[in-house]
Amino acid sequence: MLTGCYRHPQTATGVSCTRCERAICPQCMVAASVGFQCPECVGGGHAGTRRATTRFGGAIAQDGGLVTRVLIGINVVVFVLAAYVLTPRLGQVWELYSAGRAVLGGPDGVADGPAQWYRLLTSVFLHLQWWHVGMNMVVLYWLGPTLETALGRLRFLALYLLSGLGGSTLAFLIDGNSLRSVGASGAIFGLIGATVVMQLRNRGPLGPVMAFLVFNLVVTFSRTDIDWRAHIGGLVVGALTAAGLMYAPRERRGLVQGLALTGSLAVVAAMLMIGMARYGA
User: Which of 16, 20, 117, 150 is the most buried (most CB within 10 A)?
Assistant: First the structure.
């Protein structure tokens, strides 16, 4: 006589779970390597299985460049709005602008206090010239997917944003009395620094990325219309953040990576506080 399924007693079945031997009907059968298992045993077996991750602890995603493309899309949309639709209002509201107390009418912008600190981040997504956004997005498209695949989406996004903030806060720290700056270059330099760290960690070839870094540094310091402070700030914060993420020991990876991100944010906050002490009210 056939036994009723343990989940659907009204359904008779002659099949039992290969693990717990409870009767299971076709609706509850889950194919296993040998025979069938019930949903509970399948769930219990998966609970003890470690989730597959990237080398640096990120979740593996089929599309390793999703965040990169989203960031590119945001930058392009903001450029179109700032340059052609909400001109000049969006640029004025989102730019990295600061006038310290030593300037007539100051403090204003970032130096004016927390209500204006949003500019440290919004300026990272703001470009006013097509060549500026074009060059930055080409580099982001080139470097982003590899780093995103290696780190995972959330870690990569944190690296990008912290690098951008690092560039903005160093610019404010050095020249907060009279500052106007826009662009994702700080974040892009952070990705370059992170790529150098990744090549060191993986013992890969350093020549191409180092040559690219040197070329960009030469361009940075050879032109007067480039904010070298944002570039250097992004490079340093990006490299330090990447080192914390990529050199974290496997057995304490979550803790060390969390401390690395917190430490980078603390560096940004310290630069901001010192800048406020120098230029704020």
Answer: 150
For the question of residue 231 being annotated catalytic, the response is yes
Over the stretch 153-201, which tens digit does the pLDDT of each residue have?
Answer: 999 999 999 999 999 999 999 999 999 999 999 999 999 999 999 999 9
The alpha carbons of the chain give a radius of gyration, in whole angstroms, of: 26
Selecting among 123, 168, 181, 185, the annotated active-site residue is: 185
Q: State the Cα–Cα distance between residues 276 and 53, nearest whole angstrom.
A: 41
Choose, from 168, 181, 231, 264, the residue flagged as catalytic.
Answer: 231
- How does pLDDT run across 222-231, given as a tens digit for each residue? 998 899 999 9
